[in-house]
Structures are given as C-alpha cells and as structure tokens.
Amino acid sequence: MPAAEPIPADAQKPCDPGKTKTKSAAAQADPEILACLMPLMNMSFEPGRCVETIEKMSEGPKKDIALAEYYYFSGRAEKAIQATAAYLTAPDTAARLSAWWIYAYACLSMDRIDHARYALRQIQNTLSASGEKDPTVRSMEVFVVFAAAVLLHLPLPEKMPATEDFLPLLPQGLRAFALYVQAHYLYLKGAYANSAGMAEATLAMGASGYPIPAIYLHLVAVMDYTSLKQLDRAQVHLLAAWEIARPDDLIEGFGEHHGLLGGMLEAVIIPRWPEDFKRIIAITYSFSAGWRKIHNPVTGHNVADDLTTTEFATAMLAARGWTNKEIAQHMNISAHTVKRHISTALHKLGISQRRELKEYMLK
Q1: Which of 65, 110, 130, 310 gives 20 to 30 Å between its CA and that of 289?
Q2: pLDDT digits (tens, 9 = 90+) for 193-219
Q3: Is position 60 within any domain?
Q4: Domain of 139?
Q5: Number of independent structural domains in the chain
Q6: What is the 3-state secondary structure (H, E, C) of the chain?
Q7: How sure is the predictor about 30, in pLDDT bands with cuts at 50, 70 and 90?
C-alpha cells in the first residue's frame, strides 16, 4: 500500500504528449525487435480470453514472456519468477528486458529483495551502456527504465532521455502503458486533473482495447478523482477497471495501487465482491512489504509499514485533509470507526498529531 512519493523536482519531466515530435530516426519502429517486449501488455483481446489468446500463440520467447506476464498480472508471483528465469540472460533485448521487469516486480511480492534490487540494477544499466544502438532498441530500454522507476516511486536516472525520444516508436499497447506511467508521474507531482485528463484521453484514443494498459489507466484515474474528491467519477473508473480485469483474474494492479486508491476498494469492492477483495489485500500486503524495502532505503523516507490496509486507507485520506465524517461516508463505516483507525495509526507510527501523518503517507 505505497503512498504517493514525489519524484525529485530536478528529475527529467515527461513531455506533453500533445507536443511529442516524431524525429526522422524514429519514424519507423522495427516490429521484429519489439516482438518480445511485454507482448501481453501490447495485446488486444476480449476480457475472459486472455489464456486462450496466449495458448494460440506460436511456441517461442514471445509466448513464454506473455505467459510470464499473465502469471504476474494475475497475482502469481512465484510462477512469474519461474517463467522468466530462462530469459534473464537472453540475447534478445526485448525478451531480456521483459524478463528483468517481470522478475523484479515478482521478487518484491515474494520478499526476494536482493533479487529485486539486482534486477532493477540490470534494467537501469541498459541506459548507461555505451555504443550506438538501433533507435527501436533504445526506445525499449528507456520505456522499461522509466516505468520501473516511476512505478516504484524512485528517482529517475540522471541521463533519462526525453519522452519524445521513445514514445513514438512504441506500438499502441506499449504506448498506452507508457502514457499510464506519465499519468502516474503527474499524479505523484499532485497534478491530479492533468493526470486524469491524460488517462482518459489515452483510453479514448484506443487504449481501452488493450486490457493490461486499460486496467492501469483506469486505476490512475481512480487515484486522481479520489484525490479531487470526485468520487462518482472515481467509482466509474474503478468499476471499468474491474470489469476488464475480473474475467481473467488480472487483479495484481488493484493490490499494487491499494494505498493510492483512497479507500475506493473498501467502498466499492468489499460490498459486492468480498472474496475477491481478500485476495487483492493479500497481494497488497506482499507487494507493499517488498516495495517499502526498496523504496524507503533509496529515498530516505519512512512510508508507513505496519498499518493494516484499512488503517492505511483511512490515514491516507486523513493526511489529505478529509474529515472523519467524509472518510466514514466514503468507506461505508461509522465516524467512530474512522476515529479508532486513525488513533491506532497514530499510535503505531509513534506520532500524536493528525497533521504528522503527511510524513508517512504523502511524502
């Protein structure tokens, strides 16, 4: 249940996609090079047919990586680790980058922190490698490095290329996910309306046909609209994400984003899908524990690590200035229960003032 952690002010800012320029060197991407880069993320399929779509793929690295993605996005981290093992040293850049990315995140959930750190270093090292590279290869490297840093709320590499250098080269599904990452970046900087606008525009321009990016785009819109206290719009996006994810059990993203969703899972999912909520929360606990072990030492911040998910959700909203009455109404619990959760959170964190929650929830 990671809290919003701003990227440093001096980090490279993603560009406005409306101002993206397609350079002559980036006019054409090589589909053969891109073939094994997160193929499931870049795949359009009807909800409920994810496994069937993968099974129809030709045998080879592309199918194997897609299956590893499926394991990860359906909350089966151990299987994802096993599925990527053979590709961590693959000569194919796309397959290797995909394997490292999936492996790093899966290791967080399995409390294999040294393995996760090693995988993240391997990803970052791709940008510092010397020598001229095919623009398509470079675009893949930048995409994966950018996504890995922003989504773990870590500092961006010092020599991070501008978004316009890689976004035009990505195929539509990966481009949609890259725009989700940019929307997430804007969210971390507190630009909630801009972030929501980017997410909705990306969905409107075809991303809704790509289930993995669509889920994540809807979730960042939930984060934005909850922060703006536009709860009806937040609920629309949450249910849209759930409608896409549930038929294929693609629930990992809900667990990853729990702490940023501002109690929306408690408000919307618990009443209708209580058993699914339990599974989401199990993912939240395992992923968040690993996330903090990577995030806190790197950034020097102490994001709360011993609260229950409900305590975290109520404390997160309280830190953003919500009253107990507002939180209670939003989460379908009593104001007395909200007060109790916040008091417990304050006690666990060793603080006495409600305003001090910001140090643990929002920095």
Answers
A1: 65
A2: 999 999 999 999 999 999 999 999 999
A3: yes
A4: 17-171
A5: 1
A6: CCCCCCCCCCCCCCCCHHHCCCCHHHCCCCHHHHCCCCCCCCCCCCCCCHHHHHHCCCCCHHHHHHHHHHHHHCCCHHHHHHHHHHHCCCCCHHHHHHHHHHHHHHHHHCCCHHHHHHHHHHHHHHHHCCCCCCHHHHHHHHHHHHHHHHHCCCCCCCCCCCHHHCHHHCCHHHHHHHHHHHHHHHHHCCCHHHHHHHHHHHHHCCHHHCHHHHHHHHHHHHHHHHHCCCHHHHHHHHHHHHHHHHHHCCCHHHHHCHHHCCCHHHHHHHHHCHHHHHHHHHHHHHHHHHHHHHHHHHHCCCCCCCCCHHHHHHHHHHHCCCCHHHHHHHHCCCHHHHHHHHHHHHHHHCCCCHHHHHHHHCC
A7: confident
